Amino acid sequence: MAKTKTAKSKKSPAAGTKTKPLTQAASPSRIDIGIANADRKEIAEGLAHYLSDAFTLYLKTHNFHWNVTGPMFNSLHVMFEGQYTEQWTALDEVAERIRALGYNAPGSYAEFIRLTSIREEEGADGVPDWKGMVQQLVSGNEAVCRTARKVLKTADDAGDDPSVDLLTQRLQTHEKYAWMLRSLLE
Length: 186
Prior knowledge:
Elements: E1 10-11, E2 18-19, H1 37-67, H2 73-100, H3 109-115, H4 130-157, H5 161-184
Antiparallel strand pairs: 1-2
């Protein structure tokens, strides 16, 4: 399949580094799903940012599941496991939506770091206490929500109902996670 040229790279607001444009998986003329080529590209790029935020949050949640200690150990260990398990499944749905729009989904740590708005933390050597973990996950879930809202508006304006539906479901989940985690800090 031929790859076509895409727009110039733009700066990522989170990383401050140049973002490579997504690669088309198929010629735009071969895809006719009722969404204009330019709209498909914009939605796919937004979903790539969303996927990167969601993957970074997934990884952070899994890290904290492995490394939580203290008086809240059991409760948080179980809560984090439930959240990262659900998040893992959702990542696949987002990547597959990008593919359905005709673009390759990001799939490397380098791409996720470049596209995410969530600050990556140190691994096992830099884990915070349980309160710090919960605060980071509140912030991460809120960041995922902000990114989802931006893409949702773009998808809605383009009449991309499957992306709108997917993002609406993800918003509901991450808003709930943020609320539940925030409640632990009150």
